[in-house]
Amino acid sequence: MKTSTLGKLAWAMLGVSAVSATAIPLLHGWKTQDAIVATVYANAGAPMDQPTEIVVDLVDNASPADIVAIETRIGAKLSFNSPHAEDDKLMVATLPTGDKARSVLGALQSDSRIEAAEVEQTYRIPEISDASSVEMQAVAVSYAAQQSVYQAKLAAIQATHDTDSAPSDNRDGAFEAYVIAADALKKELFPDAYAACEAQGDTGCGVITDKWIADYYAHHDRTVRVGDSTLNVDATGEWHGKPVSASSLIAGAEPMKPGKGTRPNDPLYDSQWNFRMVGAEDAWAKTRGKGVIVAVIDTGVAAETTKKGKQCRDFNTTSFVKGYDFVNKDADAFDDHGHGTHVAGTIAESTNNNEGVAGLAYESTIMPLKVLGANGSGNSSDIADAIRFAADNGAKIINMSLGSSQPSSVIQKACQYALKKGVTIVCAAGNSSREGVGYPAAFPECVAISSVGPTGELARYSSWGEQVALAAPGGDMMQSGEAKDGILQNTILRGERGKGDDYYAFQGTSMASPHAAAVAALVASQGVTDPARVRDILTKSATPAGEPKKFGAGILSAANAVSMTSAVEGFKLRHLLLLGGAVLILGIGPRRSFWTRAGMLGALGAGFFGADAAQTAFGANSAWNLLTFSAALPAVAYFAGRKSLGGAKVAGTFALGTAVCLWAGWHNDLHPFTDLAFGTGAAHPWTFANMGAAFVIANLAGWKAVKLAGVNNEPAK
User: Fold this and answer.
1) Global pTM exceeds 0.90
2) Active site residue 433
3) Are 273 and 356 in the same domain?
């Protein structure tokens, strides 16, 4: 072998080694992520001391004979959790208590026909541990709703100061007392109108008229405040004792600053500080989530008027698809609690309908799935069933504002199933006020969301931990004691919990999670649906905040997420580069044969689009991206075709397309390797090294083609 050849080989080996070394940080992150998945799953589903109800997730191809054999083995009847669980073989059974049940569970968990088996676990709406507060802390009431309170109290005043029944010599005094009491009531119930009147120096504020009040609220934020309200709640955070007063406390909301996007005409929109925080209007200038189905796995949604109840007033233009009630096993997933409707409202409450408030992805479609009962709790079997139902029926986003401190292997298996079907799963981190993210949020398949208040500080109740992906506005009324600092949406609360269909300020990570789910829907509506890529966009576009354990990548930004997605989708600068290269190949330069031109054009497109196509097929978290988004394939093409003129040209254009593809990923801050799977920042060395290597290969191929053309004494073909 010639010395020059050995030298070239040595340099080539050195280059390959240098480029390959940049994969070490990526592989380290990828292997670490595998360990996280294994650890979570291994610790999930440990049986309790006295199990009764169990959940069994059989392999999907389990036969009726397999089911009979398992029933014989455990001595109990297996039944499908719901009519929708038959295909997924999700079954429940009742076992004896004590050691026998534990041994049966152990046998089931080692059975190859069973993916997961565990004791039925209870999940619920995340509780706020501080007994002085609760997620549903105060009621927000529009001016029209407050009128009923005013009229009732005014009637009582009229009865007390009845001028008709007063003695004739005291009727003037009775009327004066009535006027004073009535005006005091107006001042108590409508303080903003009085404040505005006094600010104008109007000396007639003492006898402010009903019409003046009505005109004021018709032309302002139409939201009224009535003193302070307190709640009596028990240690679990459930409603207890006297009902909430008609107080709203949201009249102090800051005026909405003009945005670049579309401002909705909903009269209470100014009270949605949370939408200002995430840049909703700028996001709406590009997309509102049309065409994306978001499954709300919760207490149900007051989506339409049925025998179970009436549709909430501000959902009249919201798009819905049929869901399911896994608690009562019927098709009407109506909300008998209020939590699920509030969550759905944040995502897609009717907007631009001159009513109430707005939704963040208001053109998306809600799939209501009821897994929690009127008491706010439900079973792990129903939750797993609902996750699979959502994945099988077109949902691209799932929101779960529910949780438990205990993991469920059955729920995690369902999350893995949904993830493989391209569903992004967003979950509330929990309301424990301490470190420790609840489940299912803590599963690596889910996007865990912590909560911030209007100041951007972590809410006092929010759980936090390493699994938190990012923070989102969830309200914080514990700091100020005012409902204006909560998340305002339309829902239905009955009895002690509220006054029916109205606008309520809630707080909790339950309220933060649907903000992230809504932004995920905005991203998906632009064409990015791979869950790994959606998560990557949400985290990379977040506004930097504080400690990662508390805020994850930062505070959710709808505006940034939509803008980042726009940089990937549609006709961009990188496509102009590709088009320019195609023009050069087809129409400019020395004479080339048709097949050479066709081969070069195909190679350019393969280099530019091939890696993205592979990523779509394998997923953004796949290790195959280490091969497809690299200079390895262009290098192979070069060494295979370098001895012929056409082969050198095809290899060169393939390398050029690959280099531009890698440049585009760096330029858009969306490398082919997600931060979650491969580590934050780990992609930079790999991207730059392979980009440079691909450009070098393209130049080598070009020089090789020139050399071959000269040796053969022929023009370039």
Assistant:
1) no
2) no
3) yes
